[in-house]
Amino acid sequence: MAHPIKHAMAATLLALGGAAQAEMLPGSEWEPTKMQAQPFESARDVFIRFEQDGRYFGNGGCNSIRGRFVTNGDAILLGPAAATMMACPEEIMQQEFGFLQTLDSVRQFDRSGTELTLSDAAARVVMRLRQRDWD
Length: 135
What we know:
By secondary structure, the chain is of the alpha+beta class.
């Protein structure tokens, strides 16, 4: 299904070009520490990695995910995630669904060192992550 609002936002972000904050995200890998203000704990490897070419990939706890993203300043738009179709225990599947749904709501980011805060269109913090690939 097409996402006309996401496509329009992506076109706008691409037309505006990048900024210093946006340049801080590509090439980094993150694991969630809080989601919807609740501590995030998982027995599985949950992460998202932002690549230099505007693609992201990761794991929701059961399935591998991938998609595209665009940034401009502190604005970010993650395109719909394509995911493998593995089946896992219900608790893991629910956690993964929540992770993907939260990523879908993200419109802003703030990176401070090894901490990443993701917010929705109303500037509500929806996820906090820590960098896992830093030296």
